């Protein structure tokens, strides 16, 4: 498994810098109200441009999910 970006939505302020700096268009901007969408995580080349340019430090590029991603999954409401 390769690297992929993870967005911490608690930090993200929807500047969409990640959308504009990613050289392989991993991210999509769906709307101004939504967070950037990691639309093509498998296309990530690990350049860390999104991580380095995020003004809120809300992105981590890693092979494994950060602990805060695991916590979000534990506390997410279950689908019915």
Give a brief outline of the structure.
This protein has three helices and four strands.
Strand order of the largest sheet: 1-4
Stretches where pLDDT is under 50 for at least 5 consecutive residues are none
Number of strands: 4
What's the SSE pattern?
EHEEHEH
What CATH calls the topology is Alpha-Beta Plaits
Q: Helix count, per DSSP?
A: 3
Task: Tell me the CATH architecture.
Answer: 2-Layer Sandwich
Which sheet architecture does the biggest sheet show? 2 strands, antiparallel
Highest-level CATH class: Alpha Beta
The gross shape turns out to be globular
| Euclidean distance between termini CA atoms | 31 Å
State the secondary-structure class. alpha+beta
Helicity, as a percent range? 10-25%
Radius of gyration: 12 Å
Structure overview:
The protein is 24% helix and 15% strand. The model has no long low-confidence stretch (mean pLDDT 90). The longest helix has 9 residues, at 67-75. The chain has one domain: 2-Layer Sandwich (Alpha-Beta Plaits). With 80 residues, it is α+β, with helices and mostly antiparallel strands. The protein has helices spanning 17-21, 49-53, 67-75; strands spanning 4-7, 27-28, 37-38, 59-62. It has a two-stranded antiparallel ribbon with strand order 1-4. A two-stranded antiparallel sheet has the order 2-3. The protein contains 3 helices and 4 strands, in the order βαββαβα.
